[in-house]
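Kindly review these tokens for lecture notes.

. . .
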Amino acid sequence: MKISPTPVVVTLVAIVCIGLAIMYNGQKMAEKANSPQPAAIKAIAPNVSVINAAPSTYQAYVSGHGEAKAHWSLSLKAQVKGEVTSMSEQFSTGNLITKGQVFAQIDDTEYLQALASAKATLADAKLALQEEQDLGNQAKREWDRSGVTQAPSSPLVFRTLQLEAAQATLDKAQYALKTAQRDVNNTQLTAPFDAVILSRDIDLGTYVSIGDTLATLNSTDKVEITVPLSLSQWQNLANNKSGDVILSDVTTNTKWNGYIARFEQHLDDSSRQRSVIVALDKPFEQTTPLLPGTFLAVEIAGKQLSNVIKLPASAVSQDGLIWYVNDQNSLVSTHANKVFERGNYVYITPVDGAKNLKVVARPLVSYLNDMKVNPIVEEIQQ
């Protein structure tokens, strides 16, 4: 049987190719083993901006918010009944009126008649009292002339009881006259204090009854702002009411200089906070009037605090931490114990065991404790 030479040739060629491939791979592996190894890549510490922070003494400030309210707010009621017979042009909403200024008149005919009657009754009472006094004196003289040495058996002898009754009648008549005069005075509608008119509830010709609302008035002598404070804020507030007070309109940022009027001596039922009352005198006479109802930001100068660190607000992370760089240039985080805030700065208590800190000015969420960094100091603006 004759064998074909083709498979033999193919087999020989395959064996030769495999051998050449093994020789080539062996040569490349030897070259790679003999080549120089690359140098290890050294990790580069990122740059971070830090602030040299050291404890110092600072003026504490207490901040809060509140609404300006008039010192006095009055819903003026009618004390007498009758028709409104006249009304001042000044008696309109938004106008200022002075204490005692008459701005409307109720018909006083009935009350003038009552006043005249009270005067007549008083005159009769005075006459009756004088007659009783004269009769009593006469009775005493007659008793003395009679030669009787013992005291009378009844107070009626010297008309003592009659005199007391006449005196009581006179007292009643005097009070009746005062009542009648008061009613006459109440027919003239006046403000009990310098005020601005918020609402007018009557018109010319209106018939009013006792107790009807005539107008709503706000005093113009001063405005007061109730500012609730937390316990920590109260601890920073001076006790002598001497701190300067800055009032700022939260909408326009207009500012006024107020003062501390008083301290509340109770906790609010809903907020469980104690309030300080600040005030501004003559709000309508300011360069920019401070109108009741204005919502204000209030800043009160408090105590001088020592051993406090001042930092930019950006140095405190959203979770209330500050990051600083230790002597080994590693990051360390700790909770920021805020004493107070003012503007773009926060004031914190020192970190335990550290007098001077390199605080990271703008910490990132990617920071980790013990992370190596390269601190670059920047100056804090005063």
